[in-house]
Every structure is written in structure tokens, then in C-alpha cells.
Amino acid sequence: MNVDMQSQYLGLQLGNPLVASASPLTGRLDMLKRLEDAGVAAAVLPSLFQEQIEHEELALQQLHEYHTDSFAESLDYFPELDNYNTGPDEYLDHIRRAKEMVAIPIIASLNGTDPGGWTRYATLLEQAGADALELNIYVVPTDPDQTGSEIEQRYIDIVTAVRHAVDIPIAVKVGPFFSSIPHMARQFVEAGAQGLVLFNRYLEPDIDLETLDVVPHLVLSTPAEALLARRWIGILYGRINASLAATSGIHRTEEVIKALLAGADVVMLASVLLTHGPEYLQTLLEELERWLSEREYASVRQMRGSVSQQNCASPEGYVRSNYMKALVSYTGKFI
Ligand SMILES: Cc1cc2nc3c(=O)[nH]c(=O)nc-3n(C[C@H](O)[C@H](O)[C@H](O)COP(=O)(O)O)c2cc1C
Prior knowledge:
eight-stranded parallel β-barrel; 40% helix; alpha/beta
């Protein structure tokens, strides 16, 4: 077996196409080390949330107002705030320590819903040593007066603001709920994104039947969820000038291979690593290499995108016709 597993993502040269997605695993230095030892090619840190930054800024502002009102000498106090240990500061510290501990690229993640002051925080993530930045943008539209284009513009404004703030590559992690994913993808690229992470896996709230309250509901993904991103990556491959990362439902080697065949540059893993531990990466890497070798692929690059809409024997399979065929050919226990 001598297959070239190298992959490129956001202009970063990676040893293979397996990336640890944002999750509590990458938030721990010991786990980052285990992920690296098991062969992960890069890691995305858990997100720093807009709310965390805004909360922190508000707290500092209140502290500032209190002290300026109360004490004439208060300005002397402020240099000491540099040591104020807060969520965002801990995040920056985690980037620095991760960069010292592991050699793989570290991708920081900012998670928010509005363009605003918080996006300036991207500069600090870059200065702390992040090799790239993933922007997780998640807007839940609730106002019937707000149009789809207004919401899309919000997404673009966030990417534009961050693009102006940093020089490191940016990837945008979004959900699948756009009228035109290819058009949106192109707009992200024009706004300065070098990569797209498809798709964000939204956690739908549940209703507690005891308290009649709306409650958060976190379940890990299943392999069936990998189909959605696979399809859109297959459609986008070769059509937009950006790296493509597949996320959600990639559990087995089978999902890894299919994502790459559709055209993904990398696959991102969270649920499966949380379930089986970082060392499961070794199994995936060995099985991927064996599959490629048995089919006489010299490299991952050679197989990438070969079953994209652009290259496969039945490109219409990615669009509507398969839908009809699947429905009319259904057979089951009662049919
Ligand atoms: C416990 C947990 C925490 C997560 N935290 C983040 C996060 O902070 N930022 C983010 O962009 N995605 C986060 N995710 C989403 C994952 O990065 C990933 O996109 C999603 O779980 C789908 O991939 P999977 O099927 O491999 O789990 C989290 C997922 C889980 C399960």
C-alpha cells in the first residue's frame, strides 16, 4: 500500500483528508494530542460565540463606567484588565497552547448571527496563531417581513467584515436552507471565503411534556445524514473556486470515500470521534488507504470528484430524476 493521502484545504497542505470538526474534543489539549497521534490532518476548535464576546464586552464596559464614575484615578486600573480571565481570553489561550502542543493546522471557529463589532475578534484569533478561521453562521429567520435576500445579505456582511479583519484563510460553515446553494456559495467566495463547510447540523429544540417548556435537544448524528452534503458537494464540485469540506453524518470509511468521490477536499468528524474516541481515526485512515490501493488509485487527489455531477456517468442522478425513480420503484413489506 503506497497511496498518496495528501489533501489541500483552504490552501493548507494536509497529510490526509480527515479533519476533526468543532466539538468538545478539540477544546481539550490532551484530546488534540491524541487526535494528532491518531493521524488527524487538522482540527477545528469549538466555536467562540458572538454571545460570549458581546457579554464580555458589555461586562468590561460596565466595569469601565463604574470605575470612571467612582474613581478619578480609575484609568490606572485598566492595564490590569489585560489579565482578566474571561471566555474569549481563554479561547485565545487555547489557540496558543494548541499551537505549541501539536504540529497540525489549528482552525479557530467564530459562531454568530449578525455582522457587528464581535467580528473584529477574528484579528485576535489570527494573532493568537490560528492557521485559518471557520465562520459558523446560523440565522433563524422569525420575522415574516424579512426577505430571503436580506437574510442572505447578513451572511455575506459577516464574511466581508471578517475578510477585512484577517489575512488567514476563511471557511464558511452554513446550513442547507438557501433557495440556491450554488448562488450562495459563489457569493461567499466573492466575499472572501476560501472554503465552504457543508452542512451545519442544526439542533432542533424539543418540547418537554412535563414542564411544557422548549428545551435543547442534542443527539449525535447518524450516517444517513451524510447524504445531504454529499449531494451538494457533488453539484458544487468544479463550479466554485473554493475548498469543500463535508460535515454531518460521516461515521464510517464508506461515508469518507463517498464524500471524496463527490468532490470534498476534506471530511470533518465530530459525532464518531465523540463516540469511539480519537484513535478511531487510525481505522478510518487504514481502511481508506486499503480501498484506494485495491482500486489502484495512486492518490486521494486522483479519486476526488470522480463521482461529482461534472464527472459521473449519470449526472442527472444528482438532481430531480432520481427522486422520481426512487419513489416509483419503492418496495417494502406492504408494497
Ligand atoms: C457536542 C457537540 C459540540 C459541537 N460544538 C460545535 C461548535 O462549537 N461549533 C461548531 O461549528 N460546530 C459544533 N458542533 C458541530 C460539529 O462540528 C459537526 O459539524 C456536527 O456535529 C456534524 O458532524 P458529525 O456528524 O460528525 O457530528 C458540535 C457538535 C457536537 C456533537
